[in-house]
Each structure stands twice: as structure tokens, then as C-alpha cells.
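Course exercise 7: structure representation. Students receive a sequence record and must write out the corresponding structure in C-alpha cell form. The form below is the worked example handed out in class, using YAE1 maturation factor of ABCE1 (88 residues). Read each field label carefully; the graders check that inputs and outputs are placed in the correct fields and that the protein name is recorded exactly as given.

STUDENT ID: A-19
EXERCISE PROTEIN: YAE1 maturation factor of ABCE1
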Amino acid sequence: MSWVQVVANRSNEDIFDEDADEMYPVQKEWNNTMRKRLKEGYRDGVEAGKELALQEGFNQGYRQGAELMVACGQFRGTLKVVLHVYAY
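STUDENT ANSWER:
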């Protein structure tokens, strides 16, 4: 809607209306600000959740990999000793 149509529709209204709600623009700005903060909070929460899940997954995988490599290292060492003893 163009501003001309708005002015034409409101031509019978007093622009200096003393009874007008002065809090409307403030309330509207407050609602917009709160809506933005809610979206930002949601995004921050999702990002934090992703980071936490990623870190926990890394920690678990690192622990499992380290345990597996210790077992492989022990097996490899045992195998080298056995091969060395039976080679001579």
C-alpha cells in the first residue's frame, strides 16, 4: 500500500491525537527485539549442541582408537618376539 493511500484513508484522523497510544511504537520495537533475541538464542543453542556432540564423539573415538592401538602394539611386539625366537 502506498503512503498516499494510507494518508487518504487516515485523512479524517487527527495526527496530533492526544489519546493515541504512545506505547505502541515502543511495544512494537520491544517485540521485534525479543523475536530477534529468541532466534539468536536458538541458533546459539543449536551451535553449542553441535560442538558438544562433536567433542564428545571425538573423545569417545580417541579413547577407542587408543585402546585398539595399545592392543595392536602389544600383539605386534609379541609377534616380533615370537618370530625372532623361532627364527634362530
